[in-house]
Amino acid sequence: MSTGIFGCVQLFFSYFKELVGREVTVELKNDLAIRGTLHSVDQYLNIKLENTRVVDQDKYPHMLSVRNCFIRGSVVRYVQLPPEGVDVELLHDATRREARGG
Amino acid sequence: MSGGPGLESLVDQTISVITNDGRNIVGVLKGFDQATNIILDESHERVFSTKEGVQQLVLGLYIIRGDNISIVGELDADLDSSLDWSKMRAYPLKPVIH
Q1: Of A25, B8, B22, B64, which is most buried with the most CB atoms under 10 A?
Q2: In a domain, B15, yes or no
Q3: What is the tens place of the pLDDT at every residue in A47-97?
Q4: CB–CB of A39 and B80 under 8 A?
Q5: How many domains is chain A partitioned into structurally?
Q6: Cβ of A65 and B16 within 8 Å?
């Protein structure tokens, strides 16, 4: 296994780069869910969103005046994607290739 | 790394940082590094509670370790001043559980 965990991160990094410009919902490990347009992503899977809104604004008014935000990769629990943004076949192949070790 | 979600564009701007323990710190971004450690100037904490409106605690110059940062938000000044935080009531954010 030459690529290991690093290879896996690279895979998802490339995958998220394909989704730039799409509308996604990022659920954080503090239960906050933020919806916005994916602006960019880096190798740590830090995410930058534009035109953000918190999904339950009445419960979480803390970010009412924030329109663009940077989310640290380490606090992301889920990223909800648009269904048309997921090429399942491609991901299957890529993850299986990773699992075989290249 | 070019084109990644760096914080360059936010330097000298007012930002709202949400930390892993659920605190919300607002200040001017003065510096940052690869690990998302950040330097905040003229910072204050916004304390949310259900009993009273948002309280502001003056903190001054702060360095926050990247490990402890959840979100760095760009504060829209017009939007922010149009909101009456003293009337806003909400539970504090939950801490991050890894």
Answers
A1: B64
A2: yes
A3: 999 999 999 999 999 999 999 999 999 999 999 998 888 888 888 888 898
A4: no
A5: 1
A6: yes
Q: Cα-flanking dihedrals φ and ψ of residue B8, to 5°? A: -50, -45
Q: Which among B72, B85, B5 has a CA at the least distance from the CA of B37? A: B72
Contact A70 B20 (CB under 8 A): no
| Number of domains composing chain B | 1
CATH number of B51's domain: 2.30.30.100
Q: Which domain holds residue A26?
A: 4-100
Distance CA B69, CA A36 (A): 19
Q: Using a CB-CB distance cutoff of 8 angstroms, which residues of chain B are in contact with residue A69? A: 71-74
A39 contacts in chain B (CB < 8 Å): 5
Long-range residue pairs from A5-8, CB within 8 A, at least 24 positions apart, any chain: A7/A98, A7/A102, A8/A98
Q: Which of 21-80 (A) contact B at CB < 8 A? A: 28-32, 34, 39-43, 46-48, 52, 59-72, 74-75
